[in-house]
DNA sequence: CTGAAAGCGCTTACAG
DNA sequence: CTGAAAGCGCTTACAG
């Protein structure tokens, strides 16, 4: 037995009470077209008396615009997406847009399902964090249908849609360069590094070329590129054994990789983590170890999370402007929805190095000679 | 200049290509009513060929149901709401429902605006975390209009809508009792404690009566009630000076309250924080102090956040089943939408004490005699 | 099982 | 400035 939803007050009811046509009532209530002050007041007070609320569905069916944007996030529960969503939500509310939110869980089937739902709900545009750089046919067809997409954090090759992200290479480069300047020579990195048909060795070879461009790669690879560049500039040789590749966005995977790295007899003296989830897994591994930060191990994390400011030691981080990324993406999308047809835009935002005390010069490890050169 | 949205393929197009009426096409595509295998196949292949996607707006306009639920959260960026939303989202996706999300920012005007938007978007039901226990007229009118509401975490008095929350009193009681059992006699609490027309002294007097019921109060007051009960059971006198009342959901406010408490010459030897945000502020204050956990100060936090498991020392917490709360609320709402008209339901979920090492017996403070009784 | 017709609640030309 | 009419893309009785 379905509960029968009361068919609320309609524009027809208002028009009848006000003694005008539905067209006139519509013009007043929808604030389009002309209306005399007299009719206007009649309609308004009738609407008030009846408690009229417009049915946006009906309006959208005609206008072809829903004033709704859809989002496909990786996982709305993660601090990264939660902050981005907040930024998107701010802009949406400010512009009287609704927001439909879905998760892909980094699964292409889910992503396709989400996009279909958003399409059927007739969103005016979408913000998507695509989970497969190569699997974007479903997105191509959205764009082809004239529905704007803004990609966030990650992108599909040759989709030709706007993009908002951060300068991953620069952020990682600066963090790793700081560790190198402190004298670290064995710097571990824990990253997702999932897509990519190459081994770490092969990527090192590619990325060592000064002309190598990683712009279209996934964030963790761009961050590894920054790692490589910092090493090249410092003249420090690369060691593939120092790279922990979790291959999926999972704290457990990262924890496992960090444990492996730290239990090695020639363990790294510093760790660079490639995102929030990798940081959580890595810190869990560190907490289980006997290592004291920063004396036994220096750490810098990509993405600054709330708690990093009040644990001991406080953790150094590469901060991404997550809220601003969401706002920029939403604003760009609204511009597109409003008809802005300038060429494809790429907004690459700057990261910020946050120094708090989780970096110190390396100490000599048992059985190892460490030459501290520093800056 | 508005970009003209291409009016996609409609059921009329499909019907024409398939050589059937729109009614028949609708029956096949919408999977309602009868259809012969022959027509069915024709319609399906025509739809496939044209790339038909139903326009859910049109369907909803007729059926009066949008298969969409709306959520009014406090702040989707907080880990508390982010997890709840994930739970809601899981159930929604599983049932092919869309999800429209808004924030109230604990501001009644925003909440009213959000509810209006959801109403105009014709959601089939709402999940709301109301920000004012007394200000619920806008919610009353929603329920009166036949649109089900499930309240989460907090509730409006006498709204007569379902509710999903946790046993705040019990959770707080057990945490504080554990501190008392360790010998703590001066236990501070940092909480929002915003609504309520009483002072802490007055509340202590009220809540000391064994028959006092705090079920309809805001969570932080219920948690303070648990604090009071644990003290009464242990025969430990209450001291209003030990309660830091931030009066708003703000980490800064909590930090300030914690600083005040900790800088007092007869400072507490243990702290109980009443929610995630209070914990963040409190931990910031602790990080700035000279106090070492757990030797100088024991801590238990209400709400278990990811990072509490891998900081040092790991933090003890009262875990709320946030994801399950969201799932339960969404499931209950879907039941109501499906027509379940049983009497108002209250789902009160259990918390779980998580012991990790941030609690130890108190040490004597300079200039104070401490009698450790504990077990 | 199928089709013609009406209609959901609005907005949009089009006359006046 | 206003109203009668048509129509957005579907679903729903109602005949057949």
UniProtKB/TrEMBL annotation, chains A, B:
It holds the Pfam family Peripla_BP_3. The keyword Transcription regulation applies. The keyword Transcription applies. SMART domains: HTH_LACI (SM00354). InterPro entries: HTH_LacI, LacI/GalR-like_sensor, Lambda_DNA-bd_dom_sf, Peripla_BP_I. CDD domains: HTH_LacI, PBP1_LacI_sugar_binding-like. Residues 9-63 form the HTH lacI-type domain. This is LacI family transcriptional regulator.
